[in-house]
Design goal:
The chain has two helices and two strands. With 84 residues, it is mainly α. The protein has one domain. The protein has a two-stranded antiparallel ribbon. The N and C termini lie far apart (48 Å).
């Protein structure tokens, strides 16, 4: 109802169309599994390294530590994909 014959209707806001691409169920489940495994590895790495990091930075929460490690890993993975 936002437009009538291509004209704007006062007081009506239109929703933008989604920019997400559609993926097939098989590629979706493979991507989901890969992402889940990556997140598990990031979490395990954060668990293993948090005690040492906390010793030097006691104000740092586990959540902050985890997200920093995950972000760093994602950046490194992105660099590898661009090179390879």
């Amino acid at each position: 109802m936002g437009r009538a014959g291509g004209e704007r209707v006062p007081g009506v806001v239109e929703m933008k169309t989604s920019k997400h691409r559609r993926i097939t169920p098989s590629s979706s489940s493979a991507a989901f599994e890969r992402d889940a495994r990556r997140e598990i590895e990031h979490f395990k790495r954060a668990l293993n390294s948090y005690a040492d990091r906390f010793a030097s930075e006691p104000h740092l929460s586990f959540e902050q530590h985890f997200f920093r490690l995950a972000a760093t890993s994602r950046l490194a993975e992105g660099e590898e994909r661009r090179r390879g």
